[in-house]
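Morning run. Coffee first, then this:
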Amino acid sequence: MDSGDFMGVLPELIVVVTALLAILADVASKGRNPSAAQGVTVLGLAVAAAVALISPSEQTMLMAGQLFNDGFSAWFRALFAVAGLATAIFSPLYLTHRKIRLGEYYSLLAMCVFGMMVMSAAANLLLFFVGLETMSIALYVLVSFRRDDAASVEGGLKYLVLGAFSSAFLLYGMALIYGGIGSLDYVAIGEALRQSDGIGPMTVTGIGLLLVGFAFKVSAVPFHFWSPDVYEGAPTTITAFMSTGAKAAAFVGLIRVFGVALILTSEHWTTALSVMAALTMTVGNFVALRQTSVKRMLAYSSIAHAGYLLVGIVAGTPQAFAAAGFYLIGYALMNLGAFGVLMLINQRGKGDYSFESLRGMGTVYPVLGLMMSVFMFSLIGIPPTAGFFGKLYVFSAAIEQGHLWLVIIGLLNSAVAAYYYLKVVSTMFMAKPEGDVAISQPFAYKAVLAISSLLIIVIGLFPDQLVTAMLRAVP
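And here it is:
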């Protein structure tokens, strides 16, 4: 490991040190001062994000070709750190209100970010799997962190069992690809496929198993059934983090594996992925229509957005992958913001996250209502928001590759989604508030929401800069 390798993995090293310092801070305070662990985590993740963004934009390889050090990994390492930072800022108010001991929470959160960073930079299937399991093991604990809540324990158990099940698909797929091609390195796999006359049944089976494993991780239909129960049972801070950071990490891995290593085998998986994308959009949106809980509605909404993102993977061009990257960044901002507002409002009463709990809160707290409206409009895809241009770029790339039918399904689903997103806005502004409407609004919490909503508008007004950066960064 030379100095270049050290500097290339500096963001990951900072996050690991942050995780260790966070748990030491908790031990030193004997659990009586959780703000110390939170402060360490926020500072460490902020530094890691800054260091990731100043990484070189040209592609280089680290650790003897095991890691990519390029603009794509830089953008997403920064995104994962920012998602973790926002979650750390949101956490004290929620966890204190729910009487959940913080303890190792922040250390586990930082280890999740570390796993995501490894997934985004991995140039080898085995190293990608190590990053995935690092993230997943920490998430298994965080999902079931509310130990006195049956729904949280049930969600954690489901996530553990089905997460291990999907990891087995990935691992067996990797083994078969290694047996068929003789390498686990993305670049070597791509080169071997380029030089071969065709691929054997072992490799085709391995690709199929990889596709199933990734479908589990991104909550694609029909492998989505774990997602709503896990999202609903988990602490809401972790639900927000999983639906943005964990989903983005899985999609970055999908782009790396199928867009770099297996792009020459696209005829074997494009049709299956197209059907999966259409089903994911449709099932996610139509089931979301029936939900009475805003939290569960956002869980199904997350499934639907996975379908939109899969359209970009189906298109399979650098432009499509850049569009998917743009979409992931915008989606992280709007979904984290939506869950953040939801957590603030649900300090009242039972905190059941029903639509009724939102009644009139936009008139009582107009700034909060305005920010929630921005997040909802962006999730729908209304201009001028980041969500609109995310869908526009993804669908345009798909049309260029002849997937018009898939884009039509996506547009129809976006119209369906408008109903339940606008229901949130109308409930907040067009209904009378009920009961005690007093809520606590810490400054740092409101600042994160304000910055997120402002960035959504700025990206929507000036999308060219970000999409150009994504085009330069895509593998």
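The first strand starts at residue 60 and ends at 62. Good start to the day.
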